[in-house]
Write a structure and sequence with these properties.
The complex is a heterodimer of chains A (361) and B (454). By secondary structure, chain A is mainly α. Chain A has 17 helices and no strands. In chain A, α12 packs antiparallel against α14. Chain A is globular and about 75 Å long. The relative contact order of chain A is 0.10. Chain B contains 14 helices and 17 strands. In chain B, strands 1-14-13-17-15-16 form a six-stranded mixed beta sheet, with helices on one face. Chain B has a four-stranded antiparallel beta sheet with strand order 2-8-7-4, with no helix packed on it. In chain B, β15 and β16 form a beta hairpin. Chain B is globular and about 65 Å long. The chains are: A mainly alpha (361), B alpha/beta (454).
């Protein structure tokens, strides 16, 4: 006897395990918003350094995207360029290079950043180091002269001409920038970055003439996208407001650099720069906001983020003030990346209801 | 955020997530009674523990509220006839997991009344704690918040343990569901009556009703009915998922933690769902049994969402047809809420004690998890900042992909995961984390059981 009177017609029912709903935040959205936050910085770079900056940023981004797409195709995997992460790598690489940097070197740096910095480790999510910084470190080692060739911002003909070194033929020595700078009719030293001035002679007039306003608003020489601290911080605030960035890392870096360099400055303000100068100069803002906070290569635990940021801050101050190099952000972040797994290991938070005996095991 | 909530005087716990509530459709609709369907079937296992043993035979006439199956031992509860009618047969029927399990089929008489006449009044004041526990078992009440764990088992405080506080859980942090909300609005006195009975049975001195601050109407109803001189109060908590998980609620209201692997009683607390307490408060003084429960029927797949009293044993299809089931457009029927509820495999299964609501989703529904499109973990740490148990889902997920289940359990506290689903909900890479953990947990349990045998 059958008792079920309801017809046994069964439309196809989906069987899923919970949760059945999902937050709309995806990797693509996060990455795309990082690109959005970088756009004002890029726009300022173009405004300050002209056509050369446009070509530099396009080249670095295109090199990264094409390299990622090509490697995916060669290894027979679906392409991963749709998640915007290669674009971020390309933009960040371009922004950290001098505006005079030859394009062929830029392209090479992009390929190394993706190939060596990212794909070799297994692609998105598996890289140990920030890929853009791997690319930059390679360029620093391979082309030290080109990496320290600076040009003044706001040259009169920046939108109609290029820096002579930009179109340097591959494997040739780029032409000297000195003549070009002289032709601009400015003191060649204006082309030096504030950090180089600080390193060579902190008491010099040129160094003393730099105001915090200059640093904030980018009226200085420097890497393509590192000069305008205000826009970099603005982008960071946007990402923090949208909860797409770990503010702890940035806060820890700024805090440590401020306190530590402040201590040096209090001891001898004639020999050491002010802490505010340390925060606003060089690549610190760009590094602390966009590169140290790279999710893949930074710790996941809240305590780990503080330690990671503090470590980078300490390294930046020590290398800048005591080391031989004027700039230290890149090495500090790369060292921080290397320490990330061990920071994660030692900063696992105490779980809910942890028993005391087990806490030590 | 939890710090902020505490400054504002609201109870909360660290971490957790904010999910859209989707409660507007049903939160203001009064509880209505459903009619008896032409055919009902009462599964013998609607609870955690041993299935009940039938005490009726085929063709026997039963009266609504009459026991039709008895508890098989302490870890079991009796079943009661949901309608006056005749027992058709005792045969297998489909359960929520899609499996067949024994059930009592009842054909209600067309003129059967919904009034329950079976039962005899009990004077609670005359009962000892042990007798109270027996009386609760006789009502057949189990955890109506979804767990379906026999309530009387939780009432018996183990030797050497002490219960000082009983929490009535009215958080209902699952999106869509408004069952507990309506029970608190419409039956606040029954909730408090049940709370008093449970406090007496457990020897607790204090009673707290924990409720999220998104239910002002229920808070008002409760506060207007708090019994005097019983040391009972209402504790308003931040609206945050999973506030209604008992471990989180204990942390929020009492700032205590249930030790890892332990039960609330290990920190001196008993936690009971408000609907469970309301049923105890209604049924126990009259000596009656559980024959119906309040459910929310909601979601884009029904045209008439609402809150209903459904007789236990009513087939899902009958309930859904009444609520305007949009047949062809429906993709999924979920028993419970969208965060922790289970997919129904068939509409031929009945309403059982543990079903808090029926959520019907359509094909053009909500963003769901599709593990085909999962990206690699980008170590963003969102899951780490969300896990209410403060585990590391990111690390656990990586280990799960390499089937390192032992490492997950021994070094990363896998077994403390209670599968709330926060990690999967927030993961921007779309990794089905909690789904991995379910598999891992069951494999670890299975291996442990096998190791014991040898």
């Amino acid at each position: 006897m059958t008792v079920i009177q309801y017809p046994m017609q069964e439309p196809a029912m989906e069987l899923r395990s919970s949760p059945h709903i999902k937050s709309s935040l995806t990797v693509e959205t996060i990455m795309f918003n990082v690109v959005l936050a970088l756009l004002p910085v890029c726009a300022f770079a173009v405004f300050a350094f002209g056509t050369s900056a446009v070509l530099l940023l396009i080249t670095s981004t295109a090199a990264c995207v094409i390299a990622e797409d090509a490697i995916c195709r060669i290894s027979g995997k679906p392409t991963t360029i749709g998640n915007w992460s290669a674009v971020i790598t390309g933009l960040l690489l371009g922004l950290t290079l001098p505006p005079t940097f030859p394009l062929w070197m830029t392209a090479l740096g992009g390929v190394v950043a993706i190939g060596l910095g990212k794909v070799l480790f297994g692609g998105l999510g598996f890289n140990v180091f920030n890929p853009a910084l791997v690319g930059r470190a390679f360029l620093q080692a391979a082309f030290p002269a080109a990496m320290t060739t600076w040009a003044p911002a706001f040259g009169a003909d920046r939108f109609v001409s290029l820096f002579p070194s930009t179109l340097a033929f591959p494997f040739s020595t780029p032409s000297e920038i000195g003549e070009y700078v002289e032709a601009l009719g400015v003191d060649a030293f204006t082309g030096a970055t504030p950090l180089m001035l600080m390193k060579s002679d902190i008491g010099s007039e040129a160094f003393q003439a730099i105001t915090y306003g200059d640093l904030l608003l980018g009226r200085i020489a420097g890497s393509t996208g590192e000069t305008c601290a205000a826009l970099i911080l603005l982008g960071g605030i946007y990402l923090i407001a949208r909860r797409m960035m770990d503010w702890r890392i940035t806060a820890a870096i700024f805090g440590t650099v401020f306190i530590l360099s402040g201590a040096f400055w209090l001891v001898d303000s004639g020999q050491y720069p002010s802490p505010l100068f340390m925060l606003l100069s060089g690549g610190l803002a760009l590094g602390a906001v966009y590169m140290a906070t790279d999710m893949v290569s930074s710790p996941t635990t809240p305590l780990g983020a503080w330690i990671f940021g503090a470590m980078i801050g300490v390294l930046v101050v020590i290398i800048r003030l005591k080391g031989g190099l004027p700039e230290a952000v890149m090495y500090a972040i790369l060292l921080g990346n290397a320490a990330t797994p061990i920071i994660n290991y030692f900063t696992q938070p105490r779980i809910y209801g942890a028993r005391k005996k087990e806490a030590t095991s | 955020m939890s710090l902020l909530a505490r400054w504002m005087g609201k109870h909360s716990f660290p971490q957790g997530i904010h999910v859209p509530e989707y409660k507007e459709a049903t939160e203001d609709s009064k509880i209505r009674r459903l009619a008896f369907p032409p055919e009902m079937f009462v599964p013998l296992s609607q609870h955690t523990g041993a299935p009940a043993k039938p005490i009726v035979h085929e063709k026997q006439e039963v009266v609504r509220g009459e026991p039709i199956a008895e508890a098989d031992g302490f870890m079991s509860v009796p079943m009661h006839a949901p309608a006056t009618g005749v027992v058709e047969q005792i045969e297998l029927a489909r359960d929520a997991r899609g499996l067949m399990s024994p059930a009592i089929y009842i054909r209600p008489y067309p003129s059967s009344s919904q009034e329950v006449l079976y039962g005899h009044d009990i004077d609670i004041d005359l009962l000892s704690r042990e007798e109270l526990i027996q009386a609760v078992q006789a009502t057949g009440v189990v955890g109506l918040g979804g767990a379906a764990f026999p309530t009387h088992v939780k009432l018996s405080v183990p030797e050497g343990k002490n219960c000082d506080t009983v929490i009535a859980n009215g958080c209902e942090c699952e999106p869509y569901l408004t069952t507990d909300h309506r029970v608190m609005v419409e039956y606040p006195k029954a909730v408090f009556k049940g709370l008093e009975i449970v406090m007496k049975a457990m020897g607790a001195k204090e009673g707290i009703v924990g409720i999220e601050d998104n239910k002002p109407e229920a808070i008002k109803a409760l506060e207007a009915n708090v019994p005097e001189g019983k040391n009972i109060r209402v504790g308003v908590c931040e609206t945050k998922y999973p506030q209604g998980a008992e471990k989180m609620l204990i942390k929020s209201l009492l700032d205590r933690e249930v030790p890892s692997g332990g039960l609330p009683i290990d920190c001196g607390v008993g936690v009971f769902n408000v609907a469970t307490l309301a049923q105890i408060g209604e049924l126990l003084p009259r000596g009656q049994g559980l024959v119906e429960r309040v459910i929310t029927v909601t979601g884009p797949g029904v045209t008439k969402p609402g809150n209903y009293i459904a007789p236990l044993g009513t087939p899902l299809r009958y309930v859904l047809d009444f609520c305007g089931y949009r047949g062809d457009e429906v993709s999924q029927v979920i028993l419970g809420g969208p965060m922790m509820g289970a997919s129904a495999s068939s509409l031929e299964m009945p309403i059982v004690k543990g079903i808090t609501g029926i959520l019907v989703l359509t094909k053009a529904g909500l963003p769901t998890i599709n593990d085909d499109s999962a990206l690699p973990c980008i170590k963003c740490g969102t899951c780490v900042h969300s896990c209410p148990m403060v585990l590391n889902p990111s690390q656990l997920g990586l280990l799960a992909q390499y089937t390192e289940y032992e490492a997950m359990a021994e070094q990363h506290n896998l077994m403390d995961c209670f599968e709330c689903g926060c990690c999967t909900y927030v993961c921007p890479s779309g990794i089905p984390l909690v789904q991995y953990f379910r598999i891992a947990k069951s494999i670890v349990r299975q291996r442990k059981a096998e190791a014991k045998k040898q």
